[in-house]
Amino acid sequence: MFKLASDFLSLDFLRQQNQKNKPESQFSSLPISQITKEGKVLAIILRREFNQEGIHFLTPDDFSQQLAYMRHPTGKSIMPHVHNKVQREVFFTQEVLIIKRGKLRVDFYDDDQQYLESHILRDGDVVLLIQGGHGFQVLEELEMIEVKQGPYVGNKDKTRFTGIEETVVKMAGAEIA
Prior knowledge:
Blueprint: H1 11-21, E1 32-37, E2 40-46, E3 54-57, E4 68-71, E5 95-109, E6 115-122, E7 126-129, E8 133-148
Antiparallel strand pairs: 1-2, 2-7, 3-4, 5-6, 5-7, 5-8
Protein name: Cupin domain-containing protein
InterPro entries: RmlC_Cupin_sf
């Protein structure tokens, strides 16, 4: 059902394209993160600093929620279109969170509710929550937008569980609160 991270997310390609446009000394990494467990992608974080020209889909075609970044010049036309009625099967809810303002810590868990790591999201950051579990701690007053598939089925839609204690938070990379 879910592909391995190495099968779809063209971060290496984007990094190569980025290197062509910048001197090596200015290049560190693209502001995109994957949270993975045993080759399965649990989440994708797109930082506000990402600014590659064109259209960049960060998900494979078979994900039930698609995440793309688009940057076009003034005057670019996007042809009018309608989306056709297509029957799809969706077995798990995938969510997209867009941080408008504030600071949010996201705690990531695997499908067995085992804690993996935490990341801080700030103004303009976007996260696609694909599978596994997640919990949140608001670190600064927060405004965010959530997008997910419907229809919502109430308590059948999620299983709640006890999260981690503050003393065991593992911040990914060099992130600090």
